[in-house]
Amino acid sequence: MDAVTAEDMLMFVNAATTSTGQHEFHHTAREQRLSLEFLHEYVAGNYRDLYAATLAMDINDHNAALIVRRLLETTSEATPEQRATEGALIARRLRDLPPQRVYDVFRALRRAKVNNRRTRAIIRDWVAARPDPALDAVKYRAGLKNALRHAHVVPDAPEVGGFLFARDHRKRYETPLLDAWRRAHYEHTAVYELPYTVAEGFAAKHGIDRAVFLERIEPRLTRLERLRLQNTARREKTAVSVDLAALPLTRLASYVLSLPVAERVDRRGELTGALRAAARRVCGRDAGRWGRVAAVLDDSFSAFGSAVKRRRPLAVALACHFLFEALADRYVPLWTSGRDDALLTHPLGVTPLGERVLDALEHGPDRLLIVSDGWDNAPHGLAAEVLRVWRTKLDPDRRVGVVHLNPVYDVADFDVKRLSPLTPTLGVRDAEDVPALVEFARFTEGRTGLPELHAHFATRTARYLEDA
Amino acid sequence: MARLDLTGLTTRPAQVWGGVRLVPLVRDEPITQLRLHPRLHDGVGVVDVGDGTHYVSYIPHGFVAAWTTDGTPAAAYGTELTREDAPRSTVPVRFHRRMARRVDKNRLRFLPLHLALEGYLALHFGGPDVVWDEWSQRAIRHGLSPRAEQAYLGERVDGLADAVKVFEIHPGQCGVAVYAADALAAVFVVPHPDDYRELHATLVHDMYGELVYQYALYSAPVRQFEVRLPDAHIRTLADLRAAANRQQAEWSAFHGTMAAGLLEPSYDIRRVHRMGGFTLSRFLPGFRVKEENHIGELITDSRGRTAYLKTFRLSESQIRRGYLLNHLSAHGWRMSDAAAALGVTEARLGTRIASAGLGSLLREDVLARYRSAISR
Asked: Structure pTM?
């Protein structure tokens, strides 16, 4: 029983890290959502404590939102002690989530008619803790309105209540942002005082030229908006500055892969520098401590992902490449396609993982890391056999640590696709989490039992709640 | 009569999706003097066969072959999309003059698989050439016209579209063998890897026989061939690599047996068009009942190497029709001789012809006599 619980929980953590309910290379969005929903129902029904504790792990926002929703929907099933921990975990996690996702959770709760006392308290506390109520009122107007109405909350900030629910009666607002929103309906200059997403609507309404709009709204852009608008800015022959070095590693890798190859060649120095800087920031004190590292990185056609997750698996592989380079003392990257210029990589061809694993082992590494969606097809199952023979015959003392990192959720397995039962396989969302994941890998080898896993979840929960 | 020659093409490990197995064929040395390009038609077309005969068919796409005669690589001709923005309420009908038609000095447009299928449709199209009593007036005057056969569009074949979409193309891949429920459905070979990359998606626009459609619909997911490395004698990494390489050779040999139904029998190959050093031909099988029978078309170079190949697997009833027509023709369209050669009564042969869908060949009163003879 204990072994089953441990296995189920590791499976759930992998799923919650990778699946986003979106279309992937092999499976549609509908299949993804169906599979994930079943998994949530199963885990929440059987292991409620551990299910809640997963909120403290490095799972993705989509799954965090699903967990919060399910916990609040099934409040009546929880004991008083469970409610206390759950409440703290939910409140803590909601603070980490991007506000638009939180408002989506609240909207879903309203639609599901979940309006218990705990839900109302959580909404009230979260809204009260927002740093700038006026910004939320303008940027997430429908979301905030819905949340306040659902939880029967009167907003603390002056004018916000009136702005949301009775704005026609006002001539003007004292709060500058609210007043800018009022004036933006007829005054061009006021548009540029608003957040970008709101201003864009007004720009369309007033028919403002895109280039002029981009140039003047630039100071109001957030970091990710700047990244997103790079191509638009180039098309409109204007410039939106972005500090590549300050971006998270995987996000940066995604951006690099979105550029045409010719541009990547032109900006090679700048892009490589930014990627290296981001990788160094992630590894911190661990830089150069991993010894000899060999990595098998998947750039086969399936690394394209899908139209909605464009080149996501490849971006994770590219980010891992730069991360391992920073962590390793001596590093050998092996792309499945056989190409060796990481910066110019694009999804192409088959996945001969078995052959590449053999190549990697020939370099005599201390650690072997495989970043792949696990669809080993040239030939199917060779990687599993190579790893099995290597473990049982050639390296029974485990001198070489092998870890498989998989960025894609497989709907049929309710888990990420494994290469071999002898190799730990971990779901990975961002390359930034890899150092922590590799430590977590010992649980997935089946050598540590449920008590250790419980202890691990408990420490993670305690640590997560502490650094509030 | 000759066999199909696939020398120069080696198989690579198969990729499986549901009931469909796709086996990549890789060319060691691409053919550069001949190139193929896709042409989208998407609509019902009327094809003029050339001798005054016309036929109507759904024609999803066409190919353009470009070649050179002096051995230099053929220039890649820009793909032309002829999809129209016409209102969808009407079905566009396109008129195609000849199935293989020269569009330029060094370019030939042809409709893939139509050459092959027309070869099958035209089999003894003229009907009985000796006017024995049993044959109907209609068969003597008009032959088998109008002759109709059914095929399924690749998109309708269950799981094929998904399998083609998630397939990862091998480096140097010039062809593919398509299996539905592990029955060979089609083989497609092109001269150059770049052509293959461009034409890979046209697999779903192709025609497939009824057998393939049914197999794909009712098939359970087929099994992957799992690699098994015998580990008893592996002591070093080099041993491990050698064992892995042996797997590849074993798989290639095994695929030879899987595709034996296509490659072993001999075919009646007829030349259709000559283009430079290349020859476009179509072939018909021996119509062996209850066995695999493929029709198809191929382009061979001057040394007989296959540059282009596309096959279509006939369904059981299509094989029976071909077999009966060939058999009757071989015995001078004389019912008694043909029945004796088969070791059955004349009446049995008559009902067999009728149940194969060729009943209109026989006079109605003759057929009725056969039927009553059997029921007695």
From this structure: 0.89
